[in-house]
Design a protein that fits this description.
The structure holds two protein chains of two kinds.
Chain A (H helix, E strand, L loop, with lengths): L8 H25 L2 H12 L4 H29 L7 H20 L6 H22 L10 H6 L1 H30 L10 H8 L3 H11 L6 H22 L9 H24 L13 H28 L14
Helix pairs in contact in A: 1-3, 1-11, 2-3, 3-4, 4-5, 5-7, 7-11, 7-12, 10-11, 10-12, 11-12
Chain B lengths: L2 H23 L2 H12 L4 H29 L7 H17 L7 H22 L10 H6 L1 H29 L11 H8 L3 H11 L6 H22 L9 H24 L13 H28 L3 H6 L1
Helix pairs in contact in B: 1-3, 1-11, 2-3, 3-4, 4-5, 5-7, 7-11, 7-12, 10-11, 10-12, 11-12
The chains are: A mainly alpha, B mainly alpha.
Amino acid sequence: MEVEPDADHSAVLARHRRDRAVLAVVFLLLFAFSYSEDFVFAVLQATGHEHVAGWLIGLVGFDAAVLAVVGLLKRAIARADDEAPRLWRWWWISFAAIVGVDVFLVFLPEGHPLWIDLVSSVALATLMGILMMVSLNGDPLTLFSRVRRSAEPTDWARVRAVVPLVIGTLACYIAATAFDDFFDLDTVRVLDPEMAAEVGAMPIAEKLGALATLCEGAVSPAFFQTVVKVIPLLLLTIGVEFNFFRRALDEPAQRAAAAATVALMSIGLSLAVSTLPWADTGCGGVLGYWHEYLTFVVSVQGVATGLATLIWLLVASSPDQRVAAEANHV
Amino acid sequence: MSELALRQRGDRAVFGVVFLMLFAFSYSEQLVSGLFPVVGGGGQTAWRVAVVVVDVAVLGLVGLMKGVVTRADGDAPRLWGWWWTGVAILIAVDVLRLFPVEAIGLDLLTATVYAAAMGLTMAASLNADPLALFSTARRVALPTDWARVRAVVPLVFGTWLCYLAASAFVDYFDLRAVRALDPATADKVAEMPIPEQMAVLSQLCEGAISPVFFQLIVEVLPVLLLTLGIEFNYFRRTLTDAGQRAATAATVTVMAAGLVGALSTLPWDGQGCGDVLSSWHEYVAFLFAVQGVFTGLATLVWLLVASTPDVAASRA
């Protein structure tokens, strides 16, 4: 970045640091906090500690650690904004509610009804949103009060940047629930040795037919193939739409949200592309469970966040005004 | 030499560094392993030694260009410590690879170290302090260094993914896939009744990578190129420094190479005997495609993370 010769060096430095803290809050909450259950599950599965105590320590500990870092960043952002400490009550209430939901989820019995999953998904996504808003030093009430919006324009700019990310996260939670409840998780991905020996003894034509039909993934490969086509077009559309709202990239929180949206869509696209070398039907060509699951939830989150951004920009921002050419010659 | 001529020479050297590192250096292994059997045979160790020789030659050339870039910037010789560190790591990894070890973890580690060292060498060769990536104070104090360092980040990320893809190709894909029938199986198939023969021939041979991958890459890359074009519009200033222009040109070139590689696979179905790509063709097209897609995506995200749009900057 070019620095004006007369710019105050320490002010520029403080601005850079504030921007970095804003970016860190958005990325930590979006990529570490909203995937905490998956991270903890992967670690518990790998270490063989899939019991209630393991989940309790793992999930609550992980979330508390991430939120502690976010709390420190909130303090740094408020200091850089030259403001007295504020919105801490919101922050602590959200923090306590998140820990409460975590504990509730850990003790939830296996065969619970679907509506509990949906309600907890909505609660977690909303809490994440509130936490992100207050950590960026933005008052969440500006979302509902016109008076506050005009009184606190910076808060409103930050709060409205977070909204599409919350909607995308909600879609991600619902996709994770759908993956567990509606897809065939017992599908045959790899032949067990007995079956493989049986198939191996068949005549060649029959063997090829059996191998092609016996194994398949839980998600149709057509889904990933379509995601690969859709996300680049969404990225392109967002790029064009940002042109009408250039100011929307002015405030660091808005830039961080835009970067997080594009990062999310890019990761979703990368994962979807990574499924393509395998045909995903027929033994020897089916994706692993984690590969398929992560690709599914991240790509759903990417598409939902992209679409929410497109709609939300039109709902909540007013386009930049063009300056008439004659204005320069008055 | 006039100041203008010196600057133009410096700009050419900047382009030379970026393109040499990205295309000659990072693909030296593939180039040598492809050409070696054609030129004169030799064993596994012989072509690995040839890779080391080619890498040393390319890095030597890049070192000369570093001198030109530094002179054009009007700076005293600097950052040679970083440069030599990067070069030493790169050559050490090359030498380590003379002793083949089959371990996925080690492959991933060496690929990561190699890509990081490549980025370090590239940044130092462009006369830019690599520490600007991590230190806010240095970014503010050395704006040109920061502009160059941040320009090479997406390229290094794309190259890292390319190295990982090369490891994945060997470790995860079925390299023993039947691409063409051996005579014994061909005889056996020929004895079958025609309908069965057709069914078997259409299923028996296949490549290691599903043809759908290349078909979709051909659709994705042009859209990504278009998206990048639109995004660069918000960051016009980011195309002023020669390092940034060179990185942008290299990004578009690597994406174009990925597109051409993927297009070149489409005339073959990729499924059924007589219609499968050769393993070399598939491997190179796969690597270019992966590097193109990931470099493009990394550029999209990185511009938003590391740059401020033109309007915001002019107000600030």
